[in-house]
């Protein structure tokens, strides 16, 4: 069982007040480099994304949008990353631009060498 002890009287003669310089917080060092969205973004491969359940995807979306919002509020976001636009539109964090053909040399129609 813990006991709470408090003092109502003045400090005794052998106890001194803390030095005022000691009470003042040290000023933090200035940031030397700007933080970017890439510094705080969490990227997943397409395979990793497909293995995530909807709750995990929602959590990722919420965290990425909050990170971006924090950077904007600090004036550190220059432009909106594609990932943020895709998440805001309800899509995954990236878009597949094109599918890669599995054939080493796709057949050509009407080419010179039929």
Automatic annotation (TrEMBL):
- Please name the Pfam families in this protein's record: KRAB
Region span, Disordered: 1-20
UniProt-listed GO biological process terms: regulation of DNA-templated transcription
Q: Which SUPFAM superfamilies match?
A: KRAB domain (Kruppel-associated box) (SSF109640)
* Ranges of residues in domain KRAB: 35-106
Q: Which PANTHER family match?
A: KRAB DOMAIN C2H2 ZINC FINGER (PTHR23232), KRAB DOMAIN-CONTAINING PROTEIN (PTHR23232:SF138)
The protein in question is named Zinc finger protein 624
Q: Look up and give the organism this protein is from.
A: Molossus molossus
């Amino acid at each position: 069982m813990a006991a709470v002890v408090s003092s109502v009287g003045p400090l005794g003669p052998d106890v001194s007040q803390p030095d005022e310089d000691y009470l003042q917080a040290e000023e933090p060092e200035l940031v030397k480099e700007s933080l970017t969205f890439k510094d705080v973004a969490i990227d997943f491969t397409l395979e990793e994304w497909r293995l995530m359940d909807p709750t995990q995807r929602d959590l990722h979306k919420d965290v990425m949008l909050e990170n971006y919002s924090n950077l904007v509020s600090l004036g550190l976001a220059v432009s909106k990353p594609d990932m943020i636009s895709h998440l805001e539109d309800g899509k995954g964090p990236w878009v597949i631009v094109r599918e890669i053909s599995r054939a080493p040399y796709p057949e050509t129609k009407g080419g010179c060498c039929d």
